[in-house]
Amino acid sequence: MIIDCHCDALLKMWLHKVDFIDDVVLDVNRQKWINSPVRVQCFAIYVPEHIPTESKFIIALEMIDLFIEKIIKPYSDIKWIKQKLDIEELKSYEKGAMLTLEGLDCIGNDLFKLRLLIRLGVKMIGMSWNTANLAVDGIGESRAAGLTDFGKKVIQLANQEKVWIDLAHISTQGFNDAIELANHVIVSHANSRKICDHARNLDDEQIKKIIEKNGLIGITFVKDFVVKKEKATIADLIYHIAHFIQMGAEDHIVFGSDFDGTDQFIEHLSAIDNYWSLQLTLHQRFSLKQCQKISYLNFLRHFPS
Questions:
Q1: Which of 50, 88, 90, 91 has the CA that lies 20 to 30 A from 144?
Q2: pLDDT 10s digits, 38-63
Q3: Whole-angstrom distance between the N-terminal and C-terminal Cα of the chain?
Q4: Cα(55)–Cα(53) distance, rounded to whole angstroms?
Q5: CATH classification at residue 171
């Protein structure tokens, strides 16, 4: 069993008007998913930067509609995950799909919009996507500011509603501010900056803070987050996992592939049905208990409740 905390299939489905069942443009489609060991897949709502501000919330709702109409409703063996029990009650032949939000641009300064998204099933709130929004700066914003008062209200709401705050893409100051306030912390897709010096990766101090906060780190398969050389292999990814474990994060690692969010992947790990190759390598390198923790147990144990 594997749980994957991040993919952008909804974005591709919205952009390209493709169907979920078997379209080859998707790294995560029904056919590939059924042929993979992934039991639960998180689907991110990411509204592209070029969308006019006044249209962003509508696009977010359109993506939720796609999730329901194209992923949930047509298939009796795909269940909508809204709570931990939904995962625990999955039958052996069933898959689980969960909604997440990547970036707060779509809500502007309207907290009621975020409340609505949570009521529609969003279980993970990404505070930013590289650039600034009204809650916090992203990692790509030169100002590098932390949480605004509105951003603090977002975290208060997340704590009340028992949903994750996702610190992928956030500024360093924003990370420090948010990790102090949030009850349920995750970085859905990032690796180790010590192993690969990428701005979106986590330095050792951030890793320690996530461990202290009892949060989660989603190992990502984006090549530039894994190595600086031309090609990345599964063996290169293992170095990141080993470093996290060495740092004491064995109980805090999950997967956050970022399938459909990039075209720069690790060799033999570019779609959801390639998870078999990663699973094999994991079991060769780590103990059974460690593999179970990374694959699904850590996610389940930290699920907000």
A1: 50
A2: 999 999 999 999 999 999 999 999 99
A3: 21
A4: 5
A5: 3.20.20.140
